[in-house]
Amino acid sequence: MQEHRTEPSASPPAEAGKRAILDTKSFTHRRPMSRRSQAFTLLQASEESPTLAGLMARARESQARLAAIAPLLPPALRATVTAGPVEEGEWCLLVDGNAVAAKLRQMVPMLLARLRVQGWDTRGIRIKVRGQR
């Protein structure tokens, strides 16, 4: 039997590049300085960040306002109303349609009175119709 030997040929540049990339994997990598090994919740993250903590507090306040007025809303409308942001004493309610917005605009004086009785100093309520999803 004859033995067939091939001489190593010069590798094309693409193969040389692959070989160089593979060789870099043998180097040790540094670990990030402050990487957490445990997952944490959004609540935990917000407690560590003043910006997120402020945002979470505003969202909780808006949800509490909605909970305060929810008993005044007709049952059919409750699911279509979402709490929006509070900006400079004016609270925003987001609604699903023009008919809901019209009904809520009629109810604004009553809703403001409820909020004031509950302790929120609210100058006004804006009603915004959400875009179609």
What can you tell me about this protein's structure?
The chain contains five helices and three strands. The model has no long low-confidence stretch (mean pLDDT 79). A three-stranded mixed β-sheet has the order 1-2-3. The protein has a domain of 88 residues: 2-Layer Sandwich (Alpha-Beta Plaits), CATH 3.30.70. The chain is an alpha+beta fold.
List keywords for this structure.
133 residues, alpha+beta, Alpha-Beta Plaits, 5 helices, 14% strand
In short:
The protein has 133 residues and is α+β, with helices and mostly antiparallel strands. It is 47% helix and 14% strand.
Compile the SSE list and pairings.
Layout: H1 13-24, H2 42-48, H3 50-69, H4 75-78, E1 81-87, E2 90-95, H5 98-117, E3 124-129
Parallel strand pairs: 2-3
Antiparallel strand pairs: 1-2
Helix pairs in contact: 2-3
User: How many strands, which pairing sense, and closed or not: the largest β-sheet?
Assistant: 3 strands, mixed
| Order of neighbouring strands in the sheet with most strands | 1-2-3
- Looking at the structure, the CATH topology of the domain at 42-129 is Alpha-Beta Plaits
Task: Give the CA-based shape.
Answer: elongated
Mean pLDDT: 79
CATH architecture of the domain at 42-129: 2-Layer Sandwich
Helices and strands, in N-to-C order? Answer: HHHHEEHE
Structural class assignment: alpha+beta
Low-confidence stretches: none
Q: Given the structure, what is the number of helices?
A: 5
Span between termini: 76 Å
CATH class of the domain at 42-129: Alpha Beta
